[in-house]
Amino acid sequence: MDQGIGQFIPLILIFVIFYFFLIRPQQKKVKEHKAMVENLSRGDKVVTSAGIIGTVERIIDNEKVEVQIADNVKVEIIKSTGIQGLLNSPEVKK
């Protein structure tokens, strides 16, 4: 009986390590990104997933925003996948 449980201990340890070093941080990152995207407002400077820096001109709906990337050049971007980060974030990363 003890041998059977002893064989599963390394597998359980591997799962615990994967959870704390891979799964949990990824879930936290996704949650932070979702909160950032939901709190976008006019005037925020953003970086798109393509690496283009622009300013949010208007929120079209829950899924899209209009971003000005140059003078008289505005593009519609899907918020959840098109916005990678916020440049003028009030909180300082350490």
UniProtKB/TrEMBL annotation:
InterPro entries: Preprotein_translocase_YajC
One record GO biological process: protein transport
Subcellular location: Cell membrane
Topology in membrane: Single-pass membrane protein
Residues of the signal peptide: none
Cellular-component GO terms for this entry: plasma membrane
Statement: the UniProt record of this protein carries the keyword Transmembrane helix: yes
TM ranges: 6-23
Key words of the record: Cell membrane, Membrane, Protein transport, Translocation, Transmembrane, Transmembrane helix, Transport
Domain of life: Bacteria
Functional note: The SecYEG-SecDF-YajC-YidC holo-translocon (HTL) protein secretase/insertase is a supercomplex required for protein secretion, insertion of proteins into membranes, and assembly of membrane protein complexes. While the SecYEG complex is essential for assembly of a number of proteins and complexes, the SecDF-YajC-YidC subcomplex facilitates these functions.
Protein family per UniProt: Belongs to the YajC family.
Quaternary state and interactors: Part of the SecDF-YidC-YajC translocase complex. The SecDF-YidC-YajC translocase forms a supercomplex with SecYEG, called the holo-translocon (HTL).
Protein known as: Sec translocon accessory complex subunit YajC
Organism: Pelagibacter ubique (strain HTCC1002)
